[in-house]
Amino acid sequence: MSGGAGLLPDGRRVRRARGWRLYDQAGERYADFWQAGGSAFLGHRPGSLARTVAAEIDRGLWAPLPTPWQARLERSLARLAQRIGSRQLFLPEDGLARSLPRWYPLSEEPAPEEALVILPFPAAREGASSLLQAGLAVASELLRHYLDSPEAQERLDLARSLPVPPGWKRDGLYWIPSPQAVLPRHEALRRGILLPPTPGERLICPGELSRRERKNWEALCGCWTG
Hints:
The protein is α/β, with parallel strands linked by helices. The protein has helices at 49-59, 69-84, 129-146, 150-161, 185-190, 211-223; strands at residues 14-18, 21-24, 29-32, 88-90, 114-116, 168-171, 174-177, 193-194, 203-204. The longest helix has 18 residues, at 129-146. The chain is globular, with a radius of gyration of 18 Å. 33% of the residues are buried.
């Protein structure tokens, strides 16, 4: 979905992303309950990621320069695995990793012994190798610190306070669909809410909602059919 094409109706495109919100070319705002499947779990411009990426661009992404980021990424993943009680975490690029169960940050389920993790680096699918390693290493550290932060607890409290759509169940920050669950994307978009583009994906509670966005979610759940 390059350039945000296909996420919004009527030929609209995502032109800007800030925090847990997306904006189209007309300036309409959408609360993001998809978050690129977890790649934007910490928002669309988290922490020091922008500075790290800018520094790597300045170094020359396409030049064969030595980089410390792969080793840093491996150490960061090991620290994150230790924090959540997992033996080892793998990224989607790691060969057979896609066959492993996925660990979801702030889920109420215990972490698998070996798990796939989607790190909160929104540009992960677009970057060159040194950019990718730098961004993922920083994202892993940001995620590890986030797990024990007041912001994470506030986000959990927010998720618990929101109604659960019919045919779904809540797990921490997530709403998990049953096999028969429907996904009313167009009705959601009409209310300024972005849901996953394909059925079967989890919904992810944003880090914050305005009063209006909360009312829109409650109204959507009220007309949501299981």
